[in-house]
Design a protein that fits this description.
The chain is of the alpha+beta class. Helix content is 17%, strand content 41%. The chain has helices at 13-19, 23-32, and strands at 9-10, 43-52, 54-64, 67-76, 85-93. Strands 1-2-3-4-5 form a 5-stranded antiparallel sheet, covered by helices on one side. Strand 3 and strand 4 form a beta hairpin. The two termini are 18 Å apart.
Amino acid sequence: MAGATETAQPVDEEIVALITPLRDAAQQAAQATGWNGLFAEFTPVSYAAQTVAGKNYFVKVKVGEDKYVHVRAFQPLPHTGLPIEVAAVQVDKSADDPVVHF
C-alpha cells in the first residue's frame, strides 16, 4: 500500500547493493548529528520500505561490534534519473531496536 511502511525483513542482495555504496554519506550524516565515531564496517542487516513518490528504505546497518545505525535512504522515481541518497541517520542503535519509519 502506498505510503504505509512495510514490516521489517532481512536484507536481500538488492538492498545490500543499494545501501552499501552509501557508507560514506551515512557516516557524514551521522557525524553531522554530533556523533564522532567511525564505521568499522557497514553491513546492512534488515530493512523496511515505504512507497512514496519514489521509495524510502529504513535500514538497520551493523557498523561495529554490537554497534548499529539506522539509515533512511530515499530512491527517487526512475524517470528522474536521480540517484539514491541518504536522507537521515539514527545512531547508537542496538541489534534489538526495531526498524521503523523515522
